[in-house]
Amino acid sequence: VSRLLRSIQDLLFPGRREDESIPPLDGAWTPNDLIESGRAIAHVDGLADAVALDDGTTLVVHGSRLTRLDSAGAGQPVAELPGTATCLAVSGDRVAVGVEDHGVVLLTVRPGSGVSSHEIAVGDVRCPTALAFDAVGRLWIADGSAEHTNARWQRDLLLDGRSGRVLRLDDPDSAPVTVASSLAWPAGLAPTADGSVVVSEAWRYRVVELGASGTSREVMTDLPGYPGQLTPTAAGGHCLALFAPRTKIVDFVMSEPQYRDAMIERLDPVAWVAPTLRTTGHPREQVQGGQLLVFGQVKPWAPCRSFGLLVEVDSGWTPLSSWHSRSDGNRHGVVRGWAAENGVVVVSAGAGEVIHVEGSSR
Amino acid sequence: MQTSSSATADARPSLSARFSLQRALSDILAKRWMETWIPLVAFALILVWVTVNVPATLAGTNLLALALDFALLGLLVLGLYLTVAAGGIDVSIVGSYAVVAVLVLIMVKLWDVPVLVAVVVAILVGAAVGVLNAALIVGAKTRPFLTTLVVMVLLRSVLSLLSVWAGPRLAQVVIDDYSWTFLGVGGILFIPVPVFTIAVLAIVAHVLLTRSRIGSRLVAVGANERSAIEAGLKAQRLKASSYVIAGALAGLAGVFYAVRFEAPSPNIGAGQEFSALAAIVLGGISLGGGRGSVPRALLGTASVTLLSSAFVVSNRTGFAYQAVLAVILLIAVGIDAKWSKHRGRAVEKLAIAPASLAWPDDLPDFTPGSGSRWAINRRLTEAEAFGLGIVEGAEDCIVDRDGNLYGGDRRGWVWKLSGPDHSTVEVFARTGGNPLGMAFDRDDNLLVCCAGRGLVSIDPAGEATLLSDQTKRSLTSIRDDSRLRLVDDLDVTPDGIVWFSEASKRFELHEWMFDMIEGRPNGRLLAYDPRTGKTTTVLNDLYFPNGVVSAHDGMSILVNSTTRCCIYRYWHAGPKKGTLEYFVDNLPGYPDNINRSADGGYWLAFVGLRNPAYDLAMQDAGMKRRMSQALPTDDWLFPNLNQSCLIKLDSEGRIVDTLWDETMRSHSLVTSMRESGSQLYIAGLTNDRIGRIAVDVEASCDCGQLPCRGSGREGAAGDRADAVVAGGSAS
Asked: Which of A294, A298, A305, A328 to mutate to test the interface with B (most CBs of B within 10 A)?
């Protein structure tokens, strides 16, 4: 009946229904091809996360390995991890690595003198999505979901997962403190000086600040993609990576439980209607009307399952500029980015590349 | 995966696939006469209300009064409607009607003017007021509503003076005149004269407005004066005439009033301008001009008359009547405004009525290098390109006996690529439609299926003529399906019959995805007989038939169904004559064109591949409907039309070979291919070229149809007499 009423309303007063529309990319979000025009520093298969070190080198995790890249992009193995690494945080010589279905591994890495590993089983973190050290050395941990591990993030999204947590480890030998729970896939952390933490809550396309006293405040809402890792900038702002686009078709499929459940149950995940980190063009992948090639070309603004998007925000969380890779590009699935000389460094998990992009959209 | 013909039953779709209630509703709503339904419903509601609450209104004694009321108001409404249709408005008609009524009484009673002369004078006086209005509005460019309102106030004061002066004098005079009595109580064919008059005038007005040049010009001026003037219409003259006619009609109404009531009063017609406007609005006629119809105006009149009569009969006051009328008006106007604004949208929303369509879940492994027969390869990637960057969207291509290559173009052209390496590219013909499938007839005319136009024949000199663009309308279709919309491929049997398919009777070429998402059998197979020039519908209810070839056996036609992923086989001769069956079923892709190969097999183009997410959606009709309504087309789930391929079938429909362009760059979409000698030409609806690759084909078939032996096309013109070797006569 409500559906009938809705369609009558639609008929007499079209356009009045509040739709869950996706915000347009304008202002600081205006699309460009900066990521596509950037220079690849290194190509790393299975790239999951990367962090810049003070000495100009970069630590990357890929597969089950931790590698140090020098400024020319040459890799030097640092450590082997007990499973698939998903995220990374560095503070001085302390390195924390999230390992899928395993937990968090703490390492001490000193240039020249090898690596010591200190493995901690943090609660029951099976889906570490983001790690961050705060100014006093405490480790913040985002656990994306209690139901799914990292690789099954699409399933968690489609099933509207709300089981993520943020934990804080005050001391490596004690049990972690649960700061917040029932989060919709927390995927980025930025601890602040006053003891609170800013979290990107991916499935709610927002960034929230969780206060030390249990308060929460939305600092960014209705983002055009699913927000992931946060990296502080020197100016007091942050670089926010949006690892996958929000699309109407995914929202629509999520509103169709019968279709969604049949899809999850019967189809190979490659064929799902879901955002991804990369689009391969394999015939099993879902295709939308606007993606059809005409004269061998695809429109840059065609609907997409994956894109590359990094945005820089100021200390008040106002977007300043953005770096894009669009439908006609392939440097998609940007999991992290940070300010660098004359521009930014973008970590594209989709293309498996660490890319130096010169210039900004400003 | 494939089933061969012998195993399949009749391929005609079920009733539930062919019929949809939602779509029938959409088709009915799209009819022009559906604009009237809200006025009609309003009238019906009023009728029911009156019947239940004030049954005396419709009793025999009151019927005559009702009819006369209707006639009087009807004349006024007719005039008012004419001015509104022409983009103006005339509220003064009620004033001139009242003045003329008193004037007629004075003429007949006091001055002894003959009744007929008085009638003529009355009409002329009414028309004169119309001329005054026209002079002010059209000549002096004053606002119609204000002008006629002022004129009405003027007329009402004239009325007051006249009736005060004439009232006592008229009271004693009795009229004894046959024609006066006839106008009052007489009847033509037992119909009271006023009613007869309004009926005749209404029919005349309706015919004039809808069927005559002057009528459509009048409405055009009302709809948009600016563009009517730009189009060269004499807008001022048309508008002026509408006021004059309205005035004359008001004069006539005045005569009928005088005859009926025989007494002057300063209150004649008081408040009737409101009733007339109410009738217009209840008829669903926009006061903005250019819309509505005479029947609707009269329907509104009927509603208003019925309501007012019911109030008179039930002794309620005029105030109550006006209040009720006002409320009904508000509601009707509100709904009608919304409805007329969004009717098109409702039609559009209901027009796509998806049906469930399911295939077995097993798609082959397309992964490159997987060793599967369907593994994507690069055999089309390095194809030689012709007309690169010049030819845009050749859906089909064909080679003539001299080796010239022809291809279509999305701009409606047919290209001729001549010379040894097809380097001379010129426009061969302009078809006036979107050229899709091609075939040569026996006289070397190039027959082309042109979407949006029909079956077109191009002679060797490049002159295009239309052979056929319609067939007989089918009996069960609500919308007229006699016109051909999306004809897409054809073939000619040796007896000269042209077999061609129309993919969809409901959607145009650019709307093909609507037909695809709907998943219903909307297409048909047609046959054109060049001897009689007639087109007949051979098969209705095919799923997007999109490729037609006469089989090597000469007794059957193979028809590709794009949305159903199958190949139909229709027997037009031989023992199975008249049956439709599946030649190949459950294809892993969407077949487009199909053509013969000289070895007795067939080439077939897959315009795209089936895709698991889309297959799943195709099974869920409700999901498809909601998706088509909630999302723009660019966001719909689509089958994978970016990865096309060519396949080779043997004579029994078994798949022998697959050819791909893995890069999806040079031949991202293949819709057709044509074998000529040891070459295979490749065309695609969204490609910027025609490709060519060498193929190794053993020319073993001698069925006499291109490219097989016996066709007379391999060089020796003398062999042409042998062309008709195979093939029975078409049914």
From this structure: A294
